[in-house]
Amino acid sequence: MIIFISGGVRSGKSSLAEQCAKKIAEAGDSLHYIATAVRTDEEMEARIIHHQQQRKYDRWQTWEQPYDLDQIIPIFSNRHIVLLDCLTNLWANELFRDERWHIEEKAPRIVQQIKKLGDQAKACIVVSNEIFYDGIPHEQGTYAYMRGLGLLHQHIVSFSDVAMLMRYGLPIVKKGRWPCGAE
Amino acid sequence: MHFVSGGAFQGKRKWVNAYYSLTHTPHVWHCAYEQPFSFPNGHEHATIVVLEGIEQWIREYFFPYTTREKEAIMSYMYAWERWEKEGRRTVIWIGCDISQGIVPIDAHERAWRDVVGWTYQQLARICNRVDYIWCGMHEQIK
């Protein structure tokens, strides 16, 4: 199962995603958190600590994987609920890892990885950001980044069971059923 | 007329192509990112016309976005509306939503954003259908 959650900055995406994961988890299931942030500055460090502390009291296991999801995919099975937070970091890390910025090669690879995660785990929850409402950027790197992220969003939503847009802490269900695709 | 909007890179073009089956339906596609929009005359034999990149078209041809330019934008849109009514025709407008970012410091950028929002409101009013695309999915808002 794949659940896609997107929204603006500080809209409550991460906490909705965590709530969602706990709701899906049954006795014996474990919760896994794929952290994608690279520690770059103090603000980022503080943000990471904030998220870590929020998860501390629950039974989350954290995997720091800023890129190459392939390396950890084999770990997961249908007793695992996987939360990927967030796609925007992962995409930036992958796209700008080398000088090539090759969208056509890199975006489909991530799409396949997420599909695989969704097939293998009980549920894969993907968190991303809405950054598409400021026009088309002129700067080449930003253009490549946004176009690629837009493509990722479209592809992931096309095979997601649930797609939600978060606004001010309120989930707007765009596809499937909330909570978490329960029939 | 049909107005299709949504954020950048959300699949607006793809959706219009699929919705109107354009791969096997004759149509004329004008893209403001590549060439200026053209006028309805010369489209006597067309039945579907797509005008993509409204915000870009405005940016290039309607500076400094005063009342005079707004009137020109309006009369251009009405010309296409008349063209549509002359036969069994459809005009599809595609415009990128640029209204939800940070208010730009630069006065020109701000004025552009403003006139684009104004134009979209006019379009939404005169079109009989409006769709908003998010992640390739459409939501009919009119």
Automatic annotation (TrEMBL), chain A:
GO molecular function ontology, one term from the record: GTP binding
GO biological process terms, semicolon-separated: cobalamin biosynthetic process
Residues annotated as binding GTP: G7, G8, V9, R10, S11, G12, K13, S14, A35, T36, A37, E64, D85
Reactions catalysed, as given in the entry: adenosylcob(III)inamide + ATP = adenosylcob(III)inamide phosphate + ADP + H(+); adenosylcob(III)inamide + GTP = adenosylcob(III)inamide phosphate + GDP + H(+); adenosylcob(III)inamide phosphate + GTP + H(+) = adenosylcob(III)inamide-GDP + diphosphate
Biological pathway: Cofactor biosynthesis; adenosylcobalamin biosynthesis; adenosylcobalamin from cob(II)yrinate a,c-diamide: step 6/7; Cofactor biosynthesis; adenosylcobalamin biosynthesis; adenosylcobalamin from cob(II)yrinate a,c-diamide: step 5/7
Keywords, sorted A to Z: ATP-binding, Cobalamin biosynthesis, GTP-binding, Kinase, Nucleotide-binding, Nucleotidyltransferase, Transferase
Enzyme Commission number(s) of this protein: 2.7.1.156, 2.7.7.62
Active site: H51 (gmp-histidine intermediate)
Matches recorded under Pfam families: CobU (PF02283)
Superkingdom, natural source: Bacteria
PANTHER family named in the record: BIFUNCTIONAL ADENOSYLCOBALAMIN BIOSYNTHESIS PROTEIN COBU, PTHR34848
Family of the protein in this entry: Belongs to the CobU/CobP family.
Function: Catalyzes ATP-dependent phosphorylation of adenosylcobinamide and addition of GMP to adenosylcobinamide phosphate.
Protein name: Adenosylcobinamide kinase
Species the sequence originates in: Anoxybacillus tengchongensis
Lineage, broadest ranks: Bacteria, Bacillati, Bacillota, Bacilli, Bacillales
UniProtKB/TrEMBL annotation, chain B:
Alphabetical list of InterPro entries matching this protein: CobU/CobP (IPR003203), P-loop_NTPase (IPR027417)
Classification via Pfam families: CobU
UniProt KW keywords: Kinase, Nucleotidyltransferase, Transferase
Keyword Kinase: yes
Gene Ontology BP terms: cobalamin biosynthetic process
Signal peptide: none
GO MF terms, alphabetically ordered: adenosylcobinamide kinase activity; nucleotide binding; nucleotidyltransferase activity
Domain of life: Bacteria
Designated name of the protein: Adenosyl cobinamide kinase/adenosyl cobinamide phosphate guanylyltransferase
